[in-house]
Amino acid sequence: MSWLNFFRTRRDEAAAGSNANLAKDRLQVIISHERVSRTREDFLPKMQQELVAVVTRYVAVDPDKVQVNLERGADLSTLAIEIELPGPKGKLT
Amino acid sequence: MAQVIVVTSGKGGVGKTTSSAAFATGLAQRGKKTVVIDFDVGLRNLDLIMGVERRVVFDIVNVIQGEAKLNQALIRDKRVDGLCILPASQTRDKDALTREGVQGIIEELSKEFDYILCDSPAGIEKGALLALYFADAAVVVTNPEVSSVRDSDRILGVLQSKSKRAEEGKEPVKQHLLLTRYDPARVERGEMLKLDDVLEILAIPLLGVIPESESVLKASNSGNPVILDSESPAGQAYADAVARFLGEEKPHRFIEAEKKKGFFGRLFGGRAA
């Protein structure tokens, strides 16, 4: 079937998966998020700080070992905070 | 009372000054007394695009600081009646502009002119904020390209929150989209954002689509606003946009790719202007 793809590529590109559509999808997601943050402050940075503060109340955490990953999506966003906790041998300060 | 129109975009290099020059000239061609003000203090270019760079004596900062009268700083266009240019300063920095100073200038110009066009600098700093502050209407110049669309959306937010009309809770600044550098052939190939996509994202009324055209560079080379080149697609598209702004119904042109030329067309057709 691969020889058929030769004829398909161009038309398919111009359809759903086109480069321009990728631009449109990316724009729609980022702009909808930016419009929201125009009216209210972006709470994610503050929430991250507070979450880390809660953890440090119980465990000594090296601030360099906290990784924050944020992915803004169209329907939902995910905030992943990875905090490396010291093992049993780790010294508590 | 004059109507104040800001030509803005957020992003630089999308065609604000080209559009300001064309739009102001178009309004004057239709008998409206029009003045176009360059707000890009430090990087003035409207004078060059309008072809009056050798006639600049005083500028907007001289007027604000009382070193010159407004009438001395205004440059009267020699091609179209009722068209004036107020240049930006080339040597001062943008802090030389003050809200009170700009307000005084706009109030004085209001007595003489029907339309006051403010050619905004790029960005959302002081110069850009002052250019849009007094606006009744905004022409948002956008390229079919992700960074330009995003910045346009940002500037729409600024218009809705930081303009005088917004601060005073008056009827909001009327927003118009001017999509420039549009290349229907690339849109057809799926390489460029479609007009409909940009309209869907920005959700403001369309004033016009200016096709990518060789005539724009030719016009800036010679210092003649492209609208004076009535043969060129870009010139015609600007003329249509001005007509729509004044309330005329004009179907949108130059949004479909040209049909492929036949053998004789290719032989004798030459290139698109």
TrEMBL record, chain A:
UniProt record, GO biological process: cell division; regulation of division septum assembly
The keyword Cell division is assigned to this record: yes
Pfam families (UniProt xref): MinE
Keywords of this entry: Cell cycle, Cell division
Keyword Nucleotide-binding: no
InterPro entries, alphabetized: MinE, MinE_sf
Family stated for the protein in its record: Belongs to the MinE family.
HAMAP family: MinE
NCBIfam families named in the record: minE (TIGR01215), PRK00296.1 (NF001422)
Biological role stated in the UniProt entry: Prevents the cell division inhibition by proteins MinC and MinD at internal division sites while permitting inhibition at polar sites. This ensures cell division at the proper site by restricting the formation of a division septum at the midpoint of the long axis of the cell.
Identification of the protein by name: Cell division topological specificity factor
Species name: Roseococcus suduntuyensis
From TrEMBL, chain B:
Cross-referenced CDD domains: MinD
CobQ/CobB/MinD/ParA nucleotide binding domain segment(s): 5-226
Record: residues binding ATP: 11-18
Keyword Mitochondrion attributed: no
InterPro entries per the UniProt record, alphabetical: CobQ/CobB/MinD/ParA_Nub-bd_dom, MinD, MinD_FleN, P-loop_NTPase, ParA/MinD_ATPase
Cell division among keywords: yes
GO biological process assignments: division septum assembly; negative regulation of cell division
Keywords carried by this UniProt record: ATP-binding, Cell cycle, Cell division, Nucleotide-binding, Septation
SUPFAM superfamilies: P-loop containing nucleoside triphosphate hydrolases (SSF52540)
Top-rank taxon, per record: Bacteria
Pfam families, sorted: CbiA (PF01656)
GO molecular function: ATP binding; ATP hydrolysis activity
GO cellular component: cytoplasmic side of plasma membrane; cytosol
Oligomer and partners: Interacts with MinC and FtsZ.
NCBIfam families found in the cross-reference section: minD_bact
Family: Belongs to the ParA family. MinD subfamily.
Function as written in the Swiss-Prot or TrEMBL entry: ATPase required for the correct placement of the division site. Cell division inhibitors MinC and MinD act in concert to form an inhibitor capable of blocking formation of the polar Z ring septums. Rapidly oscillates between the poles of the cell to destabilize FtsZ filaments that have formed before they mature into polar Z rings.
UniProt protein name: Septum site-determining protein MinD
Organism from which the protein derives: Roseococcus suduntuyensis
